[in-house]
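Progress report, Aim 2. The chain analyzed during this reporting quarter is listed below.
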Amino acid sequence: MDNETPSSSPPAPRRRGRIRRFFRFVFRTLLFVILSGGALVAWIFYQDLTGELPAIERLTHFTPPSVTRVYANDGATLLGEFYLEKRYPLPLDKIPVLVQRAFLASEDKDFYQHPGVNFSAVTRAAIANWQAGRTVQGGSTITQQIVKSVLLTSERSYRRKAQEMILALRLERQMGKAQILEIYLNQLYLGSGAYGVEAAAREYFNKGVADLTLPEAAMIAGLAPAPSVYDPFKNLEGAKERQRYVLERMMEERFISYAQAMTAWQEPLTPSSAAPASYTDLAPYYVEHVRQLIQQKYGEDATQKLGLEVYTTVDLKIQKAAEKAFRDGIDVLCRREGLCRRQSTNHLDGGLLAVDLTTGEVKAMVGGYDFTRSQFNRATQAKRQPGSVFKPVVYAAALDRGYTPASIIKDSPISFRDGRGKRWSPANYDRKFRGPIRLREALTFSRNVPTVRIADAIGLPYLISYAQTLGITAPLAPNMSVALGSSEVTLLDMIRAYGVFATNGNRFEPIFISKMTDSQGAVISESTFQPTPAIAPETAYLMTSILKSVVERGTGKEALKLGRPAAGKTGTTNDYGEAWFVGYTPELIAGVWVGFDEKRPLGSGETGGRVAAPIWTSFMKEALGDSPINDFLIPDGITVAHINAGTGKRAASGKVILEIFARGTEPGTTTETASAPGLATPEGDAFSPSPIGTPSPTPIAVPDPVQQPPLPPPLVIAPPSVARLPEPGVEEELAPVEGEEPPEESTPEFEEPEPEPEETTENNNDGAPPVDAGDTQTPLSEESLNDGIASDPLPEANAGEPSAPIAKVPPTPAPPAPEQPYNLGDSQ
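Predicted structure tokens for the chain:
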């Protein structure tokens, strides 16, 4: 029997099983590696996508840029709007359901079902676009559109699309559907500069979104995909096709019936451009100034993005009166002097500014003849030489240094030398000198030389500081010609300064904005009238009294046509280059400037009294209308005394005038000013002006004259009082007091000439007022040091003429009261 060795190889079935297991292991391993690698790649790609995504919190706290609106003082009349994007955000409950459904039906019918991304819509859009070879259908939801417009760039790529979908899913997890829809309807751009449905309703149909009809709502919703393509102003046919599409979608979603859809489709619809009145229509310079004020305080974005509600102080009735008076005055001058050549780029222009003295509110502002031609505001931005309008600052400073309206100033030749030895000799307009002249008369008739003498006496540093106290913010040159208005200032500066006189010595900042709220209605700022004491009430009233004399007897006679108590001053610069008038009543102050942006003459004889004063008077008549006529209140510290018209000294008989004083400064009191530089001195005394820029000694206090007989006490007018003070400076013949010698008249250095008749120019054929004395000047410069300074021509003084009926003032104990009351024209 043969011995057979068994086979060592396993059976075939077992071998095949091991092979299968091996390959299964390899396959699983490879699959794991592939899936793991794919997951790793996907994770890395996801991290790459999401690592640079913006935070969703930008949308949860999203406040889109919105329109800032500016209103008149009635709180309702819209003056203008400022915006980067014209948008009027509304809460969802203020947007009609009809409008909401129009957008939902046409843009995202499954909005309330999907989680932020409609994957079936994305798939359908992808297939349709692939088949067409171009983009013919979109699959973005409303949520994706918000993400795209607010959080992402406008890049078109698969990567950006993936980021858009991720953010949309995240946004839906953090915000509710209502909040998302509200953002969408307020953020969406709908063409013609309109963002959101409210702006679109105003832009296309001149109504709020709450008032839209079905066809109007459907047309606006149809603009969403391509506002410029379907713009109803440019492509009404295309807009109607989109309207039909929206109506069909609304009908499919059962938002409207077939009958409603057909009626809406067949209704004729023509859009009406009705953007609200822009600031080029109502008070344009005022609105632009308000915009600048807000930007200065809150930054450039404040007016363009924050949606502020700005309530101004402008009164449209007064504003319209200002614009009419200003334009009429410019037109008259244009015709008179042939200045209105249309081809000219240097147009005749000017400004007007009016402020309520009881509230500090700016009631009207005209910054130029035509805002569309030039947005430069000549009431607040233009710095021009004020001429004689600046002189009251000099005289007020002198009164606060001890001068009085009766102080005698020399109107006689005077020269100054600068540091280089150049000589400057100021002169008056008429090239004549009147010798010793009272301070009141020097300003009433706008004499240049006495004004310069006063400035030299009180010192330039003090004068400049005083001007700043009155509210003049423009820098003033430290040379003597500054007293004649050679340094440039704004009309607003002069309104501030004269406002101190008009409010019994209180300085205030004119108010342009009464209140401002944010887009939620919270008050950001609210203005209140806050006058602060700047100068003594007595000084302010003395200035008002003297400026009333300017109107009643001096260069501002045109303002007499107003028919109520007024105070003011004219101003004209060299070669009749600019004309000014600033004046006030107890209720309202206004200033007018007329000139060219590039300086050139207005015409021979075109002075402040002839050009600016008529504009002021015409405006004030309309602005004040039939309001009660009031006179200026008299402070407690004002007294009245008889003085000699030639010497300014106390007098009790002969030809005397009645003058007003701050209590304690009457002639003969211990605070009386004596022989300060610039005052008249006995004949033969030398006078040497101080070097330019050097302060002069303070006026000296002297006791009563030793040999002067006793004088009656001054009349004290204690406010409030209904009696009117007599007009200062009017001569009356008083009976001598028993035992009293008539006062000696001092011999002036120059014989005072008889008052001259009012001068007129050759072309003054329309009853214009007298040429404005003292209103031209030359800056103290190398070219003008040897030129005379022109001053106002001297109108007739009209001494002794009553200006208005007055109440009787109680007589002094001695001398006996005259039969007729003295006419002083100043009442409480």
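Residues 670-725, 733-828 have pLDDT under 50 and may be disordered. The domain at 317-358+379-509+535-636+661-707+736-796 is CATH 3.40.710.10 (Beta-lactamase). These observations will guide the mutagenesis work planned for the next reporting period.
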